[in-house]
Write a structure and sequence with these properties.
The protein is α/β, with parallel strands linked by helices and 155 residues long. The protein has helices spanning 6-31, 131-135, 141-151; strands spanning 34-43, 46-51, 54-57, 62-66, 75-76, 96-99, 104-109, 119-124. Strand 1 (34-43) and strand 2 form a beta hairpin. It is globular and about 30 Å long. The chain binds copper (II) ion (CU).
Length: 155
């Protein structure tokens, strides 16, 4: 019979635990990420902006909407989401975590400031099958100008 001294057993156990923690850590990193998007009265690109306004995600990732300035929200623009994707509309002024499962192209607006061009573009995964449909959605002048710049970044 092999007897393992208590200190050895403890050492083996901690090695085991560390390995398990490392494996779980790697799995978590690979499977999901959270991207912080701030709502700002003034930021990159001018007044009433999402920062960043262009976000690339993998399926399963989330966006954490952070009210850098109050008075903003995020809402799905009709016609600018993959089929079957849930419609997003958050409460004005509140932080919210938004999960993205479906691959494709998503257009968002801030409900109170869409007329001032407060929009964002999110691409998830590699599926671009709704890209042309999303591009075809009409906008007011300011929103269109910003969307044109964001669509130019889509690969
Ligand atoms: Cu706003």
């Amino acid at each position: 019979m092999i007897r393992i001294a208590p200190t050895c057993r403890a050492a083996l156990l901690s090695t085991c635990l560390l390995t398990a923690i490392a494996v779980i850590g790697i799995a978590t990193d690979a499977s999901s990420a959270e991207v912080e998007v701030k709502t700002l009265n003034t930021g990159p690109g001018g007044v009433m902006v999402f920062d960043p306004a262009f976000v690339k995600l993998n399926p399963g990732d989330t966006i954490k909407l952070v009210p850098g300035d109050k008075g903003h929200n995020i809402e799905t623009i009709k016609g600018m989401a993959p089929e079957g994707a849930p419609v997003v509309k958050t409460t004005v002024g509140y932080e919210e975590t938004i999960p993205f499962e479906k691959e494709g192209v998503y257009g968002f607006k801030c409900s109170p400031h869409y007329m001032m061009g407060m929009i964002a573009l999110v691409v998830v995964g590699k599926d671009r099958s709704n890209l042309e449909a999303a591009k075809a959605v009409p906008h007011n002048k300011l929103a269109k100008k910003r969307f044109d710049a964001l669509f130019a970044q889509v690969e």
